[in-house]
Design goal:
single chain; 380 residues; alpha/beta; Aspartate Aminotransferase, domain 1; Aspartate Aminotransferase, domain 2; seven-stranded mixed beta sheet; 12 helices; 13 strands; 40% helix; binds glutamine
Length: 380
């Protein structure tokens, strides 16, 4: 296995001095409430192993967050496990729930750890493609991807890299297929707070008949601008959470002790920070999308997340990868080629020519990237 596309592109940005709109991480800090609580925990001696499932204060705060925001009731002792970022929750879920030969239906383009962990588990992925320009989930294609070997559907909404926020019709379609075929659903909702234009994120677990078959994953990194903390969680039925906990024992054993009470403080401080962040991100999205379009790039408007997508085929590029590798020299900017997020990027409607741009950056940084792109020759 090589380096992830995110590590490769961040290294490229560092090497060339380009504006890094590749890897999705904010360039501003999280709020004082979370930083101060972490310092207090560090100074207060919370520096030895946390309990495997996570410190009780954080598990309780996660349960309160799910109840307050979505009306989901969870037993913090049996239905919540703390993980080292959502990435470990994904790993734990797939290693804990998928046996060799089991099929996993996954939205494509997919976050790169999904295929890696499906492989680690010995599973077989069955992608269902979200296609430009709308990136909608087609219920017929979803149903067709299910077989008698399907173990679970791996969902992601708000969706990285397309920025789609699945709507009620799409969620109902997922629920219908899952119930009809008695499938589990693992749903990665790390961008749950980061939606735009008054669009609401609806957890799949809130749909009728879904709580008992849905494992919901999220984290603090995106919502509180602390992506380097790597504090995530999985919530849902006790047997599914137990499967993640069992796998987690052999992955990290426990997650960072002083960061857990800090994330609990952030969750209990309410939604003011993530709501303001989503508001700012919407303006940054508009700034970047306007700039990308002005630079001649076909650009799709995302409904949530950190990311916008462009199509570079009309600029005569053979692939988004070629475009992204030339971009630092051409324009002093780094973006991520979405082609790596597909089984077959050349299949109809797939992402050979799609490029992902992160707008979780200060307005002056986006302005500089846009200025550079506007002054560059972006055709092949
Ligand atoms: N989730 C972030 C992204 O999609 C960073 C991922 C990573 O570096 N593994 O860009």
């Amino acid at each position: 296995m090589g380096a992830t596309i995110f590590a490769e592109m961040s290294a490229l940005a560092a090497r060339t001095g380009a504006v890094n709109l590749g890897q999705g991480f904010p360039d501003t800090d999280g709020p004082p409430v979370i930083l101060d609580a972490a310092v207090a925990a560090l100074r207060g001696g919370a520096n030895q192993y946390a309990p495997g499932p996570g410190v009780p204060a954080l598990r309780q705060a996660i349960a309160r967050h799910q109840r307050r925001r979505y009306g989901i009731d969870l037993d913090p002792d049996r239905e919540v496990v703390v993980t080292t970022g959502c990435t470990e929750a994904i790993a734990g879920a797939l290693l804990g729930l998928v046996d060799p030969g089991d099929e996993v239906v996954v939205l494509e383009p997919y976050y790169d750890s999904y295929p890696a962990m499906i492989d680690f588990a010995g599973g077989v992925r069955r992608p269902v493609t979200l296609r430009a320009p709308d990136f909608r989930l087609d219920p017929t294609e979803l149903a067709a991807a299910v077989s008698d070997r399907t173990k679970l559907i791996l969902l992601n909404t708000p969706h990285n890299p397309t920025g789609r926020v699945l709507d009620a019709d799409e969620l109902v379609a997922v629920a219908r297929v899952a119930i009809e075929h008695d499938l589990l659903v693992v749903t990665d909702e790390v961008y749950e707070h980061l939606t735009f234009d008054a669009r609401a994120h609806v957890p799949l677990a809130t749909l009728p008949g879904m709580a008992e078959r849905t494992l919901t994953l999220s984290s603090a990194g995106k919502s509180w601008s602390v992506t380097g903390w790597k504090v995530g969680w999985a919530t849902g039925p006790a047997p599914l959470v137990a499967a993640v906990t069992a796998a987690k024992q052999w992955l990290t054993f426990t997650s960072g002790a002083p960061l857990q009470p800090a994330v609990a403080a952030a969750l209990d401080a309410g939604d003011a920070f993530p709501t303001a962040l989503a508001h700012d991100l919407q303006a940054q999205r508009d700034q970047l999308v306007t700039g990308l379009r002005a630079a001649g790039l076909t650009t799709y408007l995302p409904e949530g997340t950190y990311f916008a997508t462009t199509d570079v085929s009309d600029l005569s590029w053979a692939s988004g990868g070629d475009f992204c590798r030339a971009l630092p020299e051409r324009a002093g900017v780094v973006a991520v080629p979405s082609e790596v997020f597909y089984d077959d990027p050349d299949a109809p409607g797939c992402g050979r020519h799609l490029v992902r741009w992160a707008f979780c950056k200060r307005p002056e940084v986006i302005a500089e990237a846009v200025r550079r792109l506007g002054g560059a020759d972006l055709s092949a």
